[in-house]
Amino acid sequence: MGLSSVTTVNEATKFCIFDLRRGQHEGQELDKILFFFPADLPFPTQLSVIGLSEGLITFTRIFSPEAACEVIEAERHSHVFYEAEPDIWMVMIVEKNKELEAIWRIDALRRVLKEVHSLFVMFHGSIRALLDKEPSGGLIRSHLYSFIMDYLSDFLVGKKLQLPNFRDSLKERGTVQMLTVGREAAIEVQSLVRVLESCAGNSPCYSLVLFRDLLVSTTLCPDDTINLFTYAVLRLTPRVLSSGASSWSYLRKGNTASHAATGSLLATSASVLDQFYASRETFPGGDGNYHIVRPLQHDKWTKGKDGFLVTDIWSAEVGSLVPTTPTIWLQQTEERMHLCAYQHRNLTLVLLIPVTSILNGEQGVSLVKQQLLENASLKMLRVEEKLSKGWGGENAYHVSGYRYLLVDGDRNVSRASPPGKVTTLTKESLVALSKLREEVDREKNRANWDGPGHEKELEVCIRAKNNAWVIAQVTRGKELYMVLEKANETLLYASDAIEKFSNRYCNGVFSLD
Amino acid sequence: MASDSNCSTSSNNSTDKNPYPNSLDQSLDAIEDQLASIAVTQPDGVVDETSSSLGPFKEVANGSLDTDIHQESTTGEIKEESRGNQLREFSGVEFSKEVLASSSSGFVWRRTNSELEVDVPSSPSSSGYAGERGSSNATSASGIEELGVDEICELGKDDSFNGVSDLQASSWVPGKRHLDEDDASISWRKRKKHFFILSNSGKPIYSRYGDEHKLAGFSATLQAIISFVENGGDHVKLVRAGKHQVVFLVKGPIYLVCISCTEEPYESLRGQLELIYGQMILILTKSVNRCFEKNPKFDMTPLLGGTDVVFSSLIHSFSWNPATFLHAYTCLPLAYATRQAAGAILQDVADSGVLFAILMCKHKVVSLVGVQKASLHPDDMLLLANFVMSSESFRTSESFSPICLPRYNPMAFLYAYINYLDVDTYLMLLTTSSDAFYHLKDCRIRIEMVLFKSNVLNEVQRSMLDGGMRVEDLPVDPSPRSGSLSPYLGQPRLASDLPDRFREAFDGIGGPAGLWHFIYRSIYLDQYVSSEVSSPINSSRQQKRLYRAYQSLYASMHDKGIGPHKTQFRRDENYVLLCWVTQDFELYAAFDPLADKALAIKTCNRVCQWVKDVENEIFLLGASPFLW
Fold it and tell me: Which family is annotated (chain A) (predicted)?
């Protein structure tokens, strides 16, 4: 089997989830491990990774009881920690290698951990809940295994995991990208949303409207919006569906040109994954008897004739041939919702209906769908048309001369230069920005620990060795990162450039002088 | 003893573990168990490792009793002699009787000082017993209270600041504090910055807070972490948790660890560990490694006996002395002719077999001369000056002491003849010859005479009183002045020297354009000049904060992978900081946070011009002997 060759390639990255409450007794340490990648790493090696992590969590609590170990920086590896749920830890270990572009920003990697956990909870509920449901751990292990492997497959380039590195410095995972909508279109959207929510009668529905890969409207709370938006962009939007194979993460769109032979890579990545699955039988507790829903499985969504998106991911649940409507958990209300997705051209519409409000199962859902078609299809046509007319193309948000990322931390919204434009920057500039962001991350974290009211206000302009201006500005919960190459050498020129950008695109938020 | 019972619980207690251990012993046990549990499954090598991490733990715990008694009951004199003996053992050093006598009496004095004057007034409520296992809840209140007191102490230490002297605290108390604490004390855990030196077998060598012997278990844990990562083929550099950073530095058989919740960047903390290691080498040379080769469980603490005060003074300088991160030294401002006169007589003696002749006033260099091609690294100067200034014995009589300059030759001892010419000014004559005492004594007499005749010592005293560059005095007109740093060099400084208009405008708000402070570092000279602190930053808390802001700025500018950057502008709620790095110099300037950017830039240019105008007086030019 090609298994060994697969894992040697992937040795550079390790990823594990463990529960500090399990395996407390000698000889039962394996019980702690809920997930380990690569799965075929010998158990002693797995245990040593977890032992070190656990040891440092305990050690750091001596001095910092309120926040245990967040990162271990060693000469050759970074270990990134995230306590996803109380006592349930995710640790990712990445190898550092300047030649192979393995220059990381810890917070960016931690956001990957956060993202996969939030998505998992959205579909399966919390890890702890699944553990409580079946204390032997088999259930949670099988779920985590298939879910995370499906998630990671989006990062596979060939046989290698390509996690976000310094080249992704002008991106912010865990935020939503919005479409700027004109006044008229906004009114149309609003009225569409009203109609959507009335489709299920009196039960409280939520909706999410996307145009291409951009959010147009949401009635969900910010956290749920991020999760659902992320999922939609990963698996539902027209770009993903039309590509036929959705292995390219939304983060890498626009970069496709630089990675030739996408198709062949996809083929390999699929087989790589199959090999991983083959090894599942050897996984502790993974007896393979569980029925596992794999919401992140590739190529499972298609657009039906009626415009609704269908998938058989959830079907086998009842063993019938009739597709079952997917369900998700809302983080805020802890409600279980049916997920209905409808697509018209570039417009994707996600409607969430409380499971409790639909008494007769699938029949009830199709009734709502019918209602939706009857009441809203015309409006959807109009909205799509309006938005398409106003759409500025792939480079709609390019600002000439600037390479930027704008993050609104309060609303979890970000906007950035199009990826195709960011690739024109030199490696030096991007590394410098990545390091600067690392500094800002630390200052922000520190301010967080100081408690509310200690929001960081910071402005940094660096003229780097390669003469690029690398800029970070944090004010009132908003962040601006910028690289200006081929710019004038005076500091005043750089601050002028920020000022202009701020006045034009950020309502002057970053204009301090 | 507490550490003894630690040990027994670590083996008995492993069946019942709490993921949120309250007492440190539990957590240490847990960590070791976690690491040990791996050993069970690890096929090779690791079993030995973890058991060895417990091994020294036990041994030291037993041994600590003896050492404690030894320390309490014997006089410093005997202790010091034993250190001398050991030194001789591995490096063939011979102390002259005179030195031994004087330095040992000095150490006696220090010990008493640190025990009576320092430890007693610090909170009586936090005895080592209070924080003992199982009773941590009871002590938490007192622990926090004590911390508050200490904090205030530390922050208030410069409050006697008179606006002229440097950042160094006059009321800072040397020597080790909180000796009664150990890792079970809540107060100990809450200290903002810990430094540890330990051996690769986990034996404690130095701890900033608490008694090393009581920290044996903790030391073993640090060792276990380091070697665990090393067994995995890697080297741990840093662990971050909330506001805390744990920084590791491995130097052969010596491990250094800093645990800090200050805002300092990793690079700075690592640099501080490097300096602490250098300080240790300065006292012992690197040949101490051989002791570990012979006996991995070698106990180094007796070798460093009585040097707590040297380390604590170095650690204190990490919060006020820019030389610790700039890797440059600073000079006392003096008229060019005065410094030349001093240099000439030093050069004279240097020609007679002295390797380096250094005349310093506190941490500032008056003059410095070395024989051909022998150049003194600024870090070595910092460590040497710290060693001399922190050891009380050097003040009381002339001394001849073996020292090692880690950047010059880490393997060998040099011999330093040290003599204070007045209360702040001291002469250091370095030689390779162990029997040069009387020769160097003669040299010193000659130097002292010349310095006295040429009035250099008086000038030095006056310069100390007058202070250095003040941001308020930044020349307004941009035209280059070929002049001197005056009005206050060579003549007493009068308030009326300043135009009234000028005084009114800037009194209490620093210099023009909101300039509060600057540091200028000349790259070729390895020297820096730092302005006197102005009124907006004259509390010690503000100075420390500014110092740390500079430190972060330095680290950010000098990133190893991509640096150095050329310019940096940084504004936060405390300052506007500007940094400018060229091939010749680096300028760091701090402004009012509301300062205007354009004006600040202009002001920086004026500062650079000003420094160039007075460089004859603020820098030691032509330090290379070829230019004399």
Answer: Belongs to the CCZ1 family.
Domain termination residue (choose one: B420, B449, B464): B464
Distance CA B206, CA B283 (A): 14
Query: Is residue A274 domain-resident?
Result: no
Contacts of B610 (CB under 8 A, 6+ apart): B469, B474, B475
CA dihedral angle for residue A483, residue A487, residue A492, residue A498, rounded to 10 degrees: -40
With respect to residue A270, please indicate whether it lies within any of the assigned structural domains: no
For residue B262, what are the domain limits? 2-320
- B345 has a pLDDT exceeding 90: yes
Residue B426 is part of a domain; what is its CATH number? 3.30.450.30
Look at residue B626 and tell me if it is in a domain: no
pLDDT tens readout for residues B446-479 = 999 999 999 999 999 999 999 999 998 998 765 5
The amino acid sitting at B90 is F
The pLDDT of residue A185: 92
Interface test with A, best of B243, B581, B594, B602 (most A CBs within 10 A): B243
The helix-helix angle for A183-198 and A361-390 (nearest 10°) equals 180
* Residue B96 domain flag: yes
| Residues of A (18-57) whose Cβ lies below 8 Å from B | 20-21, 24-27, 29, 43-44, 47-48, 51-52, 54-56
Contact A76 B234 (CB under 8 A): yes
Separation between Cα atoms, residue B176 and residue B210, nearest integer Å: 8
pLDDT band at A454 (very low <50, low <70, confident <90, very high): confident
Q: Which amino acid is at A479?
A: E
* B185 and B99 part of one domain: yes
Q: Say if B192 is an interface residue toward chain A (CB within 8 Å).
A: no
Q: Rounded to an integer, what distance in angstroms lies between the CA atom of residue B553 and that of residue B549?
A: 6
CA dist B455 and B465 (Å) reads 16
Tell me whether A61 touches chain B (CB under 8 Å): yes
- Contact: A513, B564; criterion CB under 8 Å: no
- Residue B475 forms contact with A (CB below 8 Å): no
Smallest CA-to-CA distance from B401 within B389, B383, B418 is with B418
Cβ pair B240:A459 closer than 8 A: no
Q: Clarify whether residues A195 and A324 are in a common domain.
A: yes
The per-residue pLDDT of chain A, averaged, comes to 86
Task: Write out pLDDT tens, residues B511-520.
Answer: 888 999 999 9
Cβ pairs A/B, distance under 8 A: 190
Give the pLDDT of residue B133: 34
A-interface mutation test, from B136, B266, B545, B567, most A Cβ less than 10 A away? B567
Q: Which of A14, A48, A87, A493 to mutate to test the interface with B (most CBs of B within 10 A)?
A: A48
Residues in A closer than 8 angstroms to B591, CB to CB, are none
Structure tokens at B189: 């855990």
- Determine contact: A322 vs chain B, CB below 8 A: no
Pair B102, B202 in one domain: yes
Chain A, residues 252-291, CB within 8 A of chain B, namely none
User: What's the pLDDT at B538?
Assistant: 80
Residue where a domain stops, chosen among B296, B320, B344: B320
Cβ contacts (< 8 Å) between A33 and chain B: which residues? none
Residue B597 and residue B571 share a domain: yes
Query: Number of folded domains in chain A?
Result: 3
Q: What is the mean pLDDT of chain B?
A: 75
Amino acid at B70: H
Our CA-based measurement puts residue A282 at a distance from the nearest CA of chain B, in whole angstroms, of 18
- pLDDT above 90 for B590: yes
Same domain for B185 and B240, yes or no, is: yes
Q: Does the structure show a pLDDT above 70 at B312?
A: yes
Distance from C-alpha of A348 to C-alpha of A154, rounded to nearest angstrom: 21
Mean predicted confidence (pLDDT) in A144-149: 95
Q: What would the mean pLDDT of B51-65 be, rounded to a whole number?
A: 33
Q: Which residue is associated with the tokens 């192979």?
A: A100
